[in-house]
Predict the 3D structure of the following.
Amino acid sequence: MKLKWLKSIPKGIAGVSWGVPWEKGKLYLEDSICLETKHGEKIPLQSWPTAYWSDGSVKWTGHSAVIDSNEDTFELTIGENKKLNSIVYVEEKGEQVVVNTGLLQIHINKQGTNIIEEIYHERKLVSNDIKLIAMKEFRENQKKVNIRREVPLESKIQHVEIEQKGPVKAVIKITGYHYVEDFQKRQSVLPFQLRLYFYAGTTSMNVVHTFFYDGDPQADFIKGIGLEVSTIVKGEDWNRHIHFGGDEGLYTEPAQLLLSRRLGNAEGLYDKQISGEIVQINQTENGELLNLVEQNPIWNDFKLTQDSADHYKIKKRTNEQCSWIEATHGTRAKGFVYIGGINGGICCGIKNFWQKHPSSLEVAGLSTEHPKIRLWFWSPDVEAMDLRHYDTKAHVESAYEGFDEMRATPTGISNTSEAFLQWFFQPPTKEELIDRMNDWQSPLLLVCEPDYYYKTKALGIWGLPDTTHPVKAKLEAQLNEAVSFYKNEIDQRRWYGYWHYGDVMHTYDPVRHQWRYDFGGYAWQNTELVPNIWLWYAFLRSGREDIFIMAEAMTRHTSEVDCYHFGEYAGLGSRHNVVHWGCGCKEARISMAGLHKIYYYLTTDERTGDLLHEVRDADKTIGHLDPMREFYSKDGQKTHARIGPDWAAFCSNWFTEWERTQDKQYLQKIIKGISGLKTLPLRLLSGPTFGYEPETNELIHIGDGKGAYHMVIAFGAPQAWIEIAQELEDAEFENMLIEFGEFYVLSNEEKLLQSNGILHDKLFSLPMLAAGMVAYAAAKKKDQNLAETAWNLLLDNEISEMCLPIETKKVKTWRTLTEVADITTNTTSQWCLNTIIALELIGEYLPNDKSKKVLL
């Protein structure tokens, strides 16, 4: 298969990890895999399986390589791998894990405060005392006087695990918590998870940091979360430099300026200094300059703070007893800092730095032997995290908030950030640093061509773009327009921030020219009606980097912030709300594995792998939190599950766990549920609400017509079930899916007739949501009339509730905006997803371009 860079060729040596799918029966565990340049040169490769087909062949593989070439494409084939000259070594030595990349020796602690005790290059210490840092803000009110205390938290290591140990890549997973005993003698614990990545023959370390919130939002205000690195810098103060990544290039400052009132820019030395060069000053030749320079202040501390998506500032000071002075301001910093001297130095970066504001980069003690860099994922220079709910009561009837119960708790949620570090053993050029800065802010990933992803059939039903038919061309244009609209909205509406980046809003308010950010269940989308799957399908069929970035951000956010990772709601997520975790509905559809697994398979991201594993038993959580508790609290059932979205989400979780691990107990859970449905008169149309026994995974039939059928199919159930039917080669289950699609669009009379008077039109609202399943039924039966019905669901605006074509208009209000007045993310997500499916399944049955139904 052909591989290419998602964006552009990285500058210099790059350690990269990625995943690829394989056709069923093509690859087996005993096979070796080879990576070659387009000129036939083999590159050492580390490979491992990440998913399996039902016949035992490998479905997805993960790979790591260190690439140092200007090649834009590569070939991945079954064949003999090339042996490594440089290998990552990992060994446990007492209370440490030691990683050797060939250029760096990293001593990782198994306990204590410092994550990394020391890092060596050729037996010389280059960094030490690398640890996680945090700050908490304590609030009191005494006689109308507000008192706030900022207290540093100490990190404690609990467990260290070697997840991969070479030969190309090593991964070390560290778990622990932050601790402080406050003035009220109350312990505060904030768990963390940290993964460190090392590649053979490199001088870099990648960091994936996950922060978990387990506090009381009324009392636990987090002032800062970050990583501190101590390094070694040598040389005169004027030869110690700091480079911050600005909007485009680097902003440079020395610890001491080679500038004087009397001599000015003596012999151009000041020019050289600001360009980052090492400057030699001879006492004999430059004595006067040296005497004057030594009188200049020494700037020890520097800070770049990104306090919004549109502003950062750089400050510096001489010491802790003196004030900070402002150096400059900018818009969107690249999240990059380098400090160094005559011996080289270290550069650090935070991915999505301005997108996940408030963030900052801080340098302390530049003129000292061991200066420190602090990478703040949440900057202490701004207000502390305030994770309280927006109100003290729910607004169910007026604002669609689910339940009167107040379950708006952040306890159990998390947030993941990525950082990068690289050491230099001689002063780098500015060009080298700019290259590294830009590489770190772009997805460094090898990907396949869209037609290869499509050919493997490893990710459900979707098709490649096709503009050969006039209507297809118009539909493709509308699919592109939908992506472009949301891409623009993310920036126009500034949907950025540590707790927001990756999410989009639910419903637009054309009266205020604003999304309903403050209106109950109409604010943040979370994963309502699966925009994640839409964006991932849009990426797979196009290979576009901008769509990948949108989908990656949405996956990171929705899988972490919108879901619970421990506690009462573990394995579930929060429905849409003003506050991401604000809705009283905590459900499995929000955390469903199918929403996030494509990102895992494409990138091999271990944190996302954790999240997929985490939800495998989410059905057990509904044993004490019935999703249907408002409607069926007194029928004698322990709990309930709708066939969709609840049981469908469980199927997605179980299927993902089974294909990843080959653990057959999870396959049996799916088969048990399907087998039970097969025995019922209405089969998949039964229920849709069932009693549920979490311990035995049993769906208990309590009658039919008990709930709305649009809820069955709007949250990823068709994508999960169709993939399962294909993989199990279960013809009867496939017929049940066909039956469901056909039934949805029957007349009311036909529904009543076929269900013995039980099911009727009022139970089957929003038929556009069923277009994909209707298309599936039409394709399987080769039924042109049914196919035309499916297209009608998508192309008739009155039925779809989608205003086609998508057209933006400019409005002048508090500022000039572009808007689509009637847009909702629910409708857009489902229309795009179902259109992609219909184009693949029933593209041959498209209506004529002149049809009145084609309102494009």
